[in-house]
Design brief:
Chain A is α/β, with parallel strands linked by helices. Chain A is built from 14 helices and ten strands. A six-stranded mixed sheet of chain A has the order 1-2-10-7-8-9. Chains A, B: This is Threonine dehydratase.
Chain lengths: ~325, ~325
Amino acid sequence: MPETRLDTARIRAARRVIDPIFLDTPLYRCEALEPHLGCAVSVKLETANPVRSFKGRGTELVADQLADTGPRAAVCASVGNLGQALAWSGRKRGLDIAVVASRHATAAKLDRIRALGAKLELVDGDHELARARASAIAQRDGIRLVEDSLDIETCEGAATIGLELADAAPSFDTVLIALGGGAMATGVGHVLKTLAPNVEVVCVQPVGAPAMTRSWHERRVVTTDTIDTIADGVAGRCPIPEVLDDLLVVADDAVLVAEASIVAGMRLLHDHAGLIVEPSAALGIAAVLENRDRFADRHVVTIVCGSNVDVNAYHRWISPA
Amino acid sequence: MPETRLDTARIRAARRVIDPIFLDTPLYRCEALEPHLGCAVSVKLETANPVRSFKGRGTELVADQLADTGPRAAVCASVGNLGQALAWSGRKRGLDIAVVASRHATAAKLDRIRALGAKLELVDGDHELARARASAIAQRDGIRLVEDSLDIETCEGAATIGLELADAAPSFDTVLIALGGGAMATGVGHVLKTLAPNVEVVCVQPVGAPAMTRSWHERRVVTTDTIDTIADGVAGRCPIPEVLDDLLVVADDAVLVAEASIVAGMRLLHDHAGLIVEPSAALGIAAVLENRDRFADRHVVTIVCGSNVDVNAYHRWISPA
């Protein structure tokens, strides 16, 4: 049993709180992808829901708690998907939600956050500045600060994906998980190491935003000064120590991939799986492209964690060369 | 209770036979689409499975029957999705599957049929010629002929979508169903008229392949000489009388849409719902675009029935004007 901040019984209980619209998502083989990747590939699809990412699983837990006992108001920093999901879960329960984001965040995500009725504040800086600002707002207004990956609900929500994967194990060998703050990797990893310990847990991060991966390899928090990736969903510079501790327990490996591989992954998923994915959701395919020998003849599951793309950028990424 | 060839108890029983990978598909609001359509829109997503269309629901029933009692071999005519699904269901059970298709069918669909191990025969003509050829093969070889929409299993399989929609009613007012041979329209229509009779059942067909819609309006079989539409999945010329009889019982309306609206629908689903859909799967959105007043302030569900597109054509359809 992995010793982390997570608890499998609590994760099972979380399923009863989360709106079913986010649960029991499709998991299926994509054979048309396989000649291009040299291994068996299944997709766990987290985009066919009202916020087009897996984040609703966690925000449902946060919002349910706030609706029961909290200040009925919350603020989070977000590169887009957490904010959108928190806005959705909050609106459903009549909560006041504020989101702080970088001015450089994907416009389509910011539009959706506004459309869902959240108050949106933009900061002139990157996600780490947005985190600081959200913290200041929470303190000033006495409302709940939702910290992605640090707050256990965000990990427990993501971990429910792990329960669904464990039900399908041992049909697959490896799960590829996009690594950003670490909620998904630690949540899914905890459950798999508990219920399906033979499944290999591989985290994938862009070379241009490698802080958590470097931290995992060095077994200590490593921060970076800059971020340079199209994978906005996983673009943090300052790993959270508690999350790193959990990741060290549950991850079998953490690998970095190049931007070109992320784009190639998005294009493969578009052309051969019929899926629109945001860059973060193509990290798993990118990892296979860069490590064909390692994954040859294995059966990998990649979690397609979001599809919120800027349409113009997306057209450029997937247009034929 | 609508009097059709279908029976709701048999449809419920079908759920126990169909591989769960095809069942309980996502059904969710797409609010980002709504400003463009002037009504509430939910999507029933039938593309997140190994064959990327709803057809597996029906072919699972056919193949299960053959594996139990039949000749362990079958042939069908297909514009692509039925053949792919029958090949998948047949391979799973070790059956011999042959598919007859027009030489002009979407290449990507034909590739997938071959990759799934079915024998593929191409005819120099349209789908109606493929139907005749499949019938001749069945007679010659003494194997099962699978006739889409005529064979009750194809309707019952599609009808299981109706059960899932009925569970969600009365949260929506109208369901928009792509109309081709009629399996999906009669199957889903039968269940909704039985379990959720207040839901309006609207069938949608392209102006360029209007045979079944004209037949429904004239209450008699009307055939057409030619087909001119990109919506290959619904492109028949010769409606089947038994299917028309059922459609007359369960459909509230049947409408035709222009090719430009189908393309506009595909683009809206791409840009605002993050979904790759084949032309047939955009018919519902096309119908809303052409009848804004009619659907204003209603809540429509559109069944996104397939995503098997030719990648090059798709890039042309959705590329920015």
